[in-house]
What we know:
Blueprint: H1 38-52, H2 56-68, H3 79-89, H4 94-107, H5 140-145, H6 148-154, H7 161-179, H8 192-200, H9 207-218, H10 227-236, H11 245-255, H12 261-274
Helix pairs in contact: 1-11, 2-12, 3-4, 3-7, 3-9, 6-7, 8-9, 10-12
The protein binds iron/sulfur cluster.
Amino acid sequence: MSPAAKSPAAGGSAQSRTPKSPAPKKPAPKRRPSKPAPDVVARKWAAQLEKKRPGLVPFVLDRLAEANGRPAWQHRLDPTSELVLTILTANSADVNAEVAFGALRDRYPSAPTPPGASLEPQYFPGWGGVGLPDLPAPDWSAVEAAPIAELTDVIRPGGLANQKAPRIQAALGALRANGGSYSLEFLRDKPPLEARDWLSAIPGIGKKTASVVLLFSFGTPLMPVDRHVHRVSGRIGLIPDKADADQAHDYFLAMLQPDQMYEAHVSLISHGRRTCHAQRPDCEHCPLAPRCRYFLPKAE
Ligand code: SF4
């Protein structure tokens, strides 16, 4: 049947057509409430913590300072050396990372050792190794250009050399490509989170490594959360039970004043190494026990 045969003008009955009832309205799809941003969640947590357990942060810092001294920031290494050293420490003892870093300096020297330079290692609080002598950085272009098998061999004493050698070369390549040189000095004056984002955009560099580089090289107020900081702060209840180490960075940034970050990082690491061990923490001799939720589940 053609469309014209159905028209009233063409002899069809208009009354025989029942008006279409409007289609039932579909219920509007329920909107899921959008997840609040991590920094918003962290600020809320910090405010609630202060309300429910007032003064917990200063309590922790003061008690640890009474036991071990109050750490003050001091310059350790240039930022590129700090970055490579931090890559070398991943899943390795700090003392082994130091040996590997020393081997890089020996194999790829950028300058002769200055006459009269001390070869005595300089120890830094919170560090798990014996320290490094204050010597010129390795020649980063030679490290980046080295045959991978050779570089792997050089850093083998640091452990996991097969993973770390390509990671170091990739990081150095990214620095050269992005900044035009191996220097990271330009990050000194950037806002902390912008600098951290710049560094952590490099494949293989996470929030922790970026924060370590910026905090130790420039004193940028950022809080690196390693496994010790994460474990100790989780046990005390400074961060939520379920927060992973990555999320813990946001909680600490919300909880600490800028001038508390270096102290908190170093003090919590030292406490994790000396007392709050992963296995069998020494709670009986811990100055934080009165307010620690691991020791006293209802501690305030
Ligand atoms: S009381 Fe025990 S679990 Fe709590 S911080 Fe001290 S050593 Fe760690």
